[in-house]
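Repro:
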Amino acid sequence: MEITSNSQVLPVLVESDLFLYPFMITPIFLSSKDELELVELAMKKDMQIAIMPSKNNQASGFDGCYKAGVVGNILRRSTMPDGKIKILFQGEKKARICEIISQKPMLASLETLSIQIPNEQKCEALLGILKEKIKALGKVSQAISDDLLRTINDSSDLERICDIVCSALKLKKELAYNFFIVTNIEEKVIKISDYIDGEIEASKLQKEIKSKVHSRIDKVNKEYFLKEQLKEIQRELGSDTNRDEELEEYRKRLAKKKDFMGEDAYKEINKQIERLSRMHPDGSEASMTQGYLDWALDVPFEKLSHADLSVNMVATQLDRDHYGLKKPKERIIEYFALRELLEKRKCESKANKGTILCFVGPPGVGKTSLANSISKALKRKLVRIALGGLEDVNELRGHRRTYIGAMPGRIVQGLIEAKTMNPVVVLDEIDKLARSYRGDPTAVLLEILDPEQNSKFRDYYLNFNIDLAKIVFIATANEVAPIPAPLRDRMEFIQLNSYTPQEKMEIFKKYLLPGELENHGLKASEINISKAAVQMLIEEYTRESGVRNLRRQTANILRKSALKILENGDQKGYKINITPKNLGEFLDKKVYEINPAPKIDKIGIVNGLAWTSVGGDVLRIEAIRIKGSGKLEITGQLGDVMKESAQIARSLIKTLIDSGKLKVPKELIRNDKDGKPMSVYDSYDLHIHVPEGATPKDGPSAGITMSTAIASIFSNKSVRHDVAMTGEITLSGEVLPIGGLKEKLIAAFKAKIKTALIPAKNYERDLVDIPDEVKNGMEIIAVNTISDVLKHALNK
């Protein structure tokens, strides 16, 4: 494979002191007028810049430099005390000069070096050889540090590893350039491996000689001598004179936190401060170490929210912010009642080992806002971590400090943001976590959410343990099924179901309208939305499980109302009345997510009830018969389980016809070639379709619906248009229970279904959870067998 890019015209700088690679962020000192003009040109036009290595220290211009180098960006420009200009350069890619455009200023057309990468199998072999050679060199040479070895082991990019090794070996410029321009990776790995072999032998010999001539030097005198020498060198280079003040500030901040952090944290941070004191301030490693200390010392070890936990406050806050949600509120109150009791009885260690709550339900039903209410009631900061699509395990665990741009994980960042060690952390969309070659984030969450382990959670960037036991973790999800079983075991799921139209009406009056009036700077006396208009808004414009779209449509109405008020000169006493007649003036178009039940009984068309991750729905299953030989065709992008339900339904109806329990009209009976009557199911092909065809569908709960559709076709009896049903069917005709009953019945109620057929076991077990509004608005009938279903669904 080859990696190529188009050529581009860029300013060119010649660097005589350093040999740069694409992964470097490096300070470069400039003094000549031509170089300063080039930098000004690049920054003014927001261009990248190319830096080419010089052939010798005195060379300048295109004749004195090599023809390949690094293209990258200028991150920062600053003036040194001695008048020199310093730029901070970040390399991006290798490129070669293909045409010189101008000598002054130095401009050239460059093209990216095309890298030839062997096949995957050969890449793995070369990678193994190179890592083995580097590991061997690391044992005998100081050039290969432990951090560098970890970086190389964690990487699988051969080209990048080669560049890192060449940079660490501090090669002579000509040799470094010869390695730099090799585009065949296989050839490059072989050349570097041969060079490393020579270095290993040289290092062994050097080590042997040093051991013979090494003499003891007093440790204290040696350190003092080296530090004084380093300070003098830094003064000569014009380095920052505030260096000692910065180091002292780090030490003071560490001393303040010492009593609140673990011993391992104190040792790690103190070690990095001492390392920083020995580094050159302009080096990239010094910049990384300063970044680490800023992050580590921002962790609020010493800060906790000390507000007393009160169940009454939690209950009051939940009722103030949310309408309905009786069972979720009860479970939340029980959860915090237990914590309050344990805290009062001085069992704080047990109070911090409670269950992790996970709110499950369709979008817009109040999962995240419940967490917000808990945060307010506890008087703790709220930290929201969006997990949707997250696939890099380092996003949670933290990045190792082996490359530029490493940072702590989102959990530690959340603590720093909250400025307290015991915030409320909301793990949003925990069911949307992804898994890739970067790792499995769910494995990290197993530790984060385990009360037995999270008191010693290790962030890879900080490299010490963090106590997460005091955090109140709350997760949210649309579905439970996608969450891996070990992670499900860490949490207790609280189901939040769809709102009924009446509940939405109350939420609109008590929460949505007052809140949006305030957001839009309007007064309640200026806007009047009639009850009939709100009902139309709920039923015809915002059919959904939650109230998110209802809030959006309310905002649309108020925006147009604000415009009308301004057009009328903001007159006193001017009032806008919104009724069903003029609602269309404020909103674009009606939305029918759940169509009302048809008003005509038809043969082969049955209302089925389905569950989706965004709430319940009404599926109209259609069946037709075609003259044929008894074949079955199923369409509508159905899953395997649903296809099997169709086959079971056909076999079941065949047995009902054969046993005489389902009568077939004479006009449907056809004769064979010999004039003998044929079985009706052998005389016709069946075609079953479940709209919409573009939406994938699966699940066993359409069994009785499909059976009714087939029975209607073969009996020539129409199906009642105001009946909907859900239930799994067996070959013997028994109706089995299903899940998601509350969502399904709410969907039927919204579609103005008058009768719902549900399995008898669901009737006994789940009917208590159904809102009274739904139970009073339709007849719910329990069915045990297919005969019960057909008795209520088919017209006589």
